[in-house]
């Protein structure tokens, strides 16, 4: 244990300070495709009963009209957020008819590219720019890749806890800047250790052969319709999924929020000739927001992001610059096909302990050499994580994945104990023991269990995923929401549709003017006070 971590644990472990651990917030964003009862993509519009995808606070769409995104409120305990995620699922199923949710990260059999519907958010300027952005994604990367689903885990510590740590350190920066740079330090540690999350929770070792659309690959055939790698943990997070060569090196390892914002802002301003050839407009229609390396900051495919809740029409970098980092968003978690919600409480308890460790432990400055090492460790784990005696690199020294993983678990153990002391019970420590078991026996990992289950379905990924999806569809349909919950969601639906209609009726100016103004603010506040 580092001296800094030991000092911080001693500081927090007091009657006065321990309650601060309960004041951070947790939230989940769960992506999932709508499919029919045969596992084919639903290409129908977003269900009206689920409200406006533009303005509903809990239910929206991601890339495709078929790709739902369920968003929980930020809660002080992840168990509360999971309960609310369950209610969103139950309400949605009560209005699905014969539709159901595809309970897997890798997509179902998809129709031809031209038939995959891009999400539609109405005719308001905000709605249209969201749609145009997705048109750009289709041009740049194809539609199939955008149909991959994941779990995003939002995490923050109490602002009062950051202030306590700042006072103890006699740090002279403002509260906002100390908190922002502390989240950046968390992110540096996350990049060092996130390969462990892929080993422990990766759940996409196989995919439908049709998904690759003829792309070159190094996968093996498991059956006529399924490709896999025997020791893979998360093909979703490999170069076959959420990866993009154009973005390689786009945001180098960073040691400050300002470095991060500058990298993103430069990418949003830097023209990319291949994208210029695609054209920004076609027959008077906007096809992408711009022809730069990134249309907007969110196009950067990061495994973790510093975040700040944005205002309507505000750019993410503008929000970070104006008000600092509010929370972090972990984006590398696969949908667990054996869980109704795609994630369970035990996994979430481990994430809380893991992220607290990343936040409180020493986090030395990073550089490109370490950044390449981190990327290599991650890439090896997602493709070969369960391979016997797999070796990773820790500051230039070879170390086995199993041994290093056990070391990290031991370092996290005191934080899990502290979280249990604050909350009562032993859920965090129990989750650590579950993860230890996976390191000792790779067959206990979700990726190994997925492969075993696929083999029981004649080696077909689609048959396995369809079976799991039907199972959970039956579960949710058999447990509809009560009258009070139904009324609550019905009101959210009504108000969201009303809000969208009002936006469309009262907006001023042309969309061309709106989008030009949006593009002009690419780097507007990058040199804000305190940064």
TrEMBL record:
Please state the span of the N-terminal signal peptide per the UniProt entry. Answer: none
Q: Origin, by domain of life?
A: Bacteria
Supply the Gene3D superfamilies for this chain.
3.30.590.20
SUPFAM superfamilies the UniProt entry points to: Glutamine synthetase/guanido kinase
Q: Which InterPro entries does the record match to this protein? A: Gln_synth/guanido_kin_cat_dom, Glu_cys_ligase, Glut_cys_ligase
The UniProt GO MF terms for this protein read: glutamate-cysteine ligase activity
Q: Name one Pfam family in it.
A: Glu_cys_ligase
- Coiled-coil spans are none
Give the pathway listed in the UniProt entry for this protein: Sulfur metabolism; glutathione biosynthesis; glutathione from L-cysteine and L-glutamate: step 1/2
**Catalytic activity, as annotated:** L-cysteine + L-glutamate + ATP = gamma-L-glutamyl-L-cysteine + ADP + phosphate + H(+)
Does the UniProt entry include the keyword Cell inner membrane?
no
Q: In what residue span(s) does the Glutamate--cysteine ligase domain sit?
A: 10-378
Kindly report, in one word, the top-level EC class recorded for this enzyme: ligase
Alphabetically sorted, this entry's keywords are: ATP-binding, Glutathione biosynthesis, Ligase, Nucleotide-binding
**What's the Enzyme Commission number for this chain?**
6.3.2.2
Name the protein family. Answer: Belongs to the glutamate--cysteine ligase type 1 family. Type 1 subfamily.
The protein, known as: Glutamate--cysteine ligase
């Amino acid at each position: 244990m580092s001296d800094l971590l030991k000092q911080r644990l001693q500081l927090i472990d007091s009657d006065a300070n321990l309650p601060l651990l309960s004041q951070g917030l947790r939230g989940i964003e769960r992506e999932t495709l709508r499919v029919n009862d045969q596992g084919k993509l639903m290409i129908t519009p977003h269900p009206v009963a689920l409200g406006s995808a533009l303005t509903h606070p809990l239910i929206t769409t991601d890339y495709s009209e078929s790709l739902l995104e369920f968003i929980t409120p930020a809660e002080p305990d992840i168990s509360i957020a999971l309960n609310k995620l369950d209610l969103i699922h139950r309400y949605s199923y009560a209005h699905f008819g014969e539709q159901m949710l595809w309970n897997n990260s890798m997509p179902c059999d998809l129709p031809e590219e031209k038939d995959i519907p891009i999400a539609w958010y109405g005719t308001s300027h905000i709605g249209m720019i969201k749609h145009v952005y997705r048109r750009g994604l289709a041009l740049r990367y194809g539609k199939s890749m955008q149909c991959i689903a994941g779990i995003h885990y939002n995490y923050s510590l109490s602002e009062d806890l950051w202030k306590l740590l700042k006072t103890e350190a006699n740090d002279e920066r403002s509260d906002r800047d100390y908190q922002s740079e502390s989240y950046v330090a968390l992110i540096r540690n996350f990049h060092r250790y996130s390969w462990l999350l892929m080993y422990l929770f990766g759940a996409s070792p196989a995919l439908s052969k049709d998904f690759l659309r003829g792309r070159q690959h190094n996968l093996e055939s498991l059956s006529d319709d399924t490709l896999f790698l025997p020791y893979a943990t998360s093909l979703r997070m490999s170069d076959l999924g959420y990866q993009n060569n154009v973005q390689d090196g786009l945001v180098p390892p960073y040691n400050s929020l300002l470095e991060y914002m500058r990298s993103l802002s430069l990418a949003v301003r830097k023209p990319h000739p291949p994208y210029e050839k695609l054209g920004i407009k076609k027959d008077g229609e906007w096809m992408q927001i711009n022809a730069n390396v990134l249309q907007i900051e969110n196009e950067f495919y990061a495994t973790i992001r510093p975040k700040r809740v944005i205002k309507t029409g505000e750019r993410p970098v503008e929000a970070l610059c104006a008000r600092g980092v509010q929370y972090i968003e972990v984006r590398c978690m696969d949908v667990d096909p054996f869980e109704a919600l795609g994630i369970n409480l035990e996994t979430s308890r481990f994430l809380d302990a893991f992220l607290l460790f990343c936040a409180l432990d020493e986090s030395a400055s990073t550089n490109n050499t370490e950044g390449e090492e981190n990327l290599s460790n991650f890439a090896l784990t997602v493709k070969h994580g369960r391979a016997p005696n797999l070796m990773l690199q820790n500051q230039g020294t070879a170390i086995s994945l199993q041994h290093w993983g056990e070391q990290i678990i031991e370092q996290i153990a005191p934080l899990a104990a502290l979280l249990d002391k604050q909350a009562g019970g032993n859920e965090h420590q129990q989750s650590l023991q579950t993860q230890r078991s996976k390191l000792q026996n790779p067959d206990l990992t979700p990726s190994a269990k997925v492969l075993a289950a696929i083999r029981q379905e004649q080696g077909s990924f689609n048959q396995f995923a369809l079976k799991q999806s039907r199972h959970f569809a039956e579960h949710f349909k058999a447990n509809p929401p009560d009258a009070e919950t139904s009324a609550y969601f019905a009101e959210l639906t009504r108000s969201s549709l009303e809000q969208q209609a009002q936006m469309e009726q009262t907006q001023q100016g042309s969309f061309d003017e709106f989008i030009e103004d949006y593009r002009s603010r690419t780097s507007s506040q990058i040199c804000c006070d305190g940064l």
